[in-house]
């Protein structure tokens, strides 16, 4: 039996919430693995899927050695929830090598980001994702985040990739409901997840299958309940109650606010980030403190 066949199997459709996990650091600018283990345990307790090394995890600010150490460390914890690993950058050969490293680890999915900086068109995007899908041994979620990649995934790209059996889902983080609808039309078979915490109730009404969340770092159980109620349509005031609280996590570049909040919560010892990000960008914590009160009182 191959190592891939030995990986614990999960039905990914049963996990409507994926937490884009932060990477905790020490003041010496090393990964705080003790804190990381505790954060993983919190997500397992909430039964949330875990995404490693995304933009919230500062994946591109980590060295290749650190990336490998983090994924290997979390795999060795054997969390009883599925693990997704981010694949992103601008050098295709390096991304293929990363996939080859991860393919035989006990992970369950990949998040495939658009190539950064180059701003490719439809053919370039198709070739990029086609190559990554060809080298993946696990289901893949594409990631549309033009605010970070500088280019939006074109709906035609999904049509071009529809033959791939590993193409499972899309994380839509443009904040544009029209883009969401265009993706649904181009690829009805894809599970589409909101990449914007505050917009989850709207995206749920439009047919989203779940959320890839920043907020779940700070509020694992409350965010899971937020997603459940959004998908069930049983709580019409979700957007009004949550939006201002969630928006406090994006007052400055993510993941600065969520790390500051988690430090204030006592859940990470240090709010440190990797340059060019720094917690010193956020001087006023009043909005975060108010948000924390709002979310923790959610019922």
Automatic annotation (TrEMBL):
What InterPro entries does the annotation carry?
Answer: Aldolase_TIM, DapA, DapA-like, Schiff_base-form_aldolases_AS, Schiff_base-form_aldolases_CS
Q: Name one GO cellular component term.
A: cytosol
Entry keyword set: Amino-acid biosynthesis, Cytoplasm, Diaminopimelate biosynthesis, Lyase, Lysine biosynthesis, Schiff base
List the pathway annotation.
Amino-acid biosynthesis; L-lysine biosynthesis via DAP pathway; (S)-tetrahydrodipicolinate from L-aspartate: step 3/4
Q: Which Pfam families match?
A: DHDPS
Q: Where is this site: Part of a proton relay during catalysis?
A: 55, 117
Where does this polypeptide localize?
Cytoplasm
Q: What is its EC number?
A: 4.3.3.7
A molecular function (GO) held by this record is:
4-hydroxy-tetrahydrodipicolinate synthase activity
GO annotation, biological process = diaminopimelate biosynthetic process; lysine biosynthetic process via diaminopimelate
Active site, renumbered: 143, 171
Q: Signal peptide: which range, if any?
A: none
The top EC class is: lyase
Q: Can you tell me which residues bind pyruvate? A: 56, 212
Catalysed reactions, as listed in the record: L-aspartate 4-semialdehyde + pyruvate = (2S,4S)-4-hydroxy-2,3,4,5-tetrahydrodipicolinate + H2O + H(+)
Per UniProt, subunit arrangement is: Homotetramer; dimer of dimers.
PANTHER family (alphabetical): 4-HYDROXY-2-OXOGLUTARATE ALDOLASE, MITOCHONDRIAL (PTHR12128:SF66), DIHYDRODIPICOLINATE SYNTHASE (PTHR12128)
Q: HAMAP family per the record? A: DapA
Q: What does this protein do?
A: Catalyzes the condensation of (S)-aspartate-beta-semialdehyde [(S)-ASA] and pyruvate to 4-hydroxy-tetrahydrodipicolinate (HTPA).
Family membership, please give it: Belongs to the DapA family.
Name of this chain's protein: 4-hydroxy-tetrahydrodipicolinate synthase
User: What is the gene name?
Assistant: dapA
């Amino acid at each position: 039996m191959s190592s891939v066949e030995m990986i614990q199997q999960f039905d990914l459709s049963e996990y409507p919430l994926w937490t884009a996990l932060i990477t905790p650091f020490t003041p010496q600018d090393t990964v705080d693995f003790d804190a990381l283990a505790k954060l993983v345990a919190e997500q397992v307790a909430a039964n949330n899927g875990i995404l490693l090394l995304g933009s919230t995890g500062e994946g591109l600010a980590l060295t290749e050695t650190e990336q490998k150490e983090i994924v290997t460390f979390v795999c060795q914890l054997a969390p009883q929830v599925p693990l997704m690993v981010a694949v992103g950058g601008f050098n295709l050969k390096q991304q293929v090598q990363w996939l080859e490293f991860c393919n035989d680890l006990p992970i369950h999915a990949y998040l495939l980001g658009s190539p950064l900086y180059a701003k490719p068109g439809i053919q370039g995007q198709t070739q990029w994702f086609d190559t990554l899908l060809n080298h993946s041994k696990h289901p893949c979620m594409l990631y549309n985040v033009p605010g970070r990649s500088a280019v939006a995934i074109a709906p035609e790209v999904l049509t071009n990739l529809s033959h791939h059996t590993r193409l499972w889902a899309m994380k839509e983080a443009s904040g544009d409901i029209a883009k969401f609808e265009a993706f649904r039309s181009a690829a009805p078979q894809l599970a589409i997840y909101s990449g914007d915490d505050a917009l989850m109730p709207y995206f749920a009404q439009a047919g989203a299958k779940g959320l890839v969340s920043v907020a779940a770092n700070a509020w694992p159980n409350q965010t899971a309940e937020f997603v459940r109620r959004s998908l069930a349509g049983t709580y019409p005031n979700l957007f009004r109650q949550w939006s201002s609280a969630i928006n406090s996590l994006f007052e400055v570049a993510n993941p600065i606010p969520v790390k500051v909040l988690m430090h204030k919560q006592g859940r990470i010892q240090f709010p440190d980030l990797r340059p060019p990000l720094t917690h010193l960008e956020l001087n006023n914590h009043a909005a975060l403190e108010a948000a924390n009160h709002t979310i923790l009182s959610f019922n």
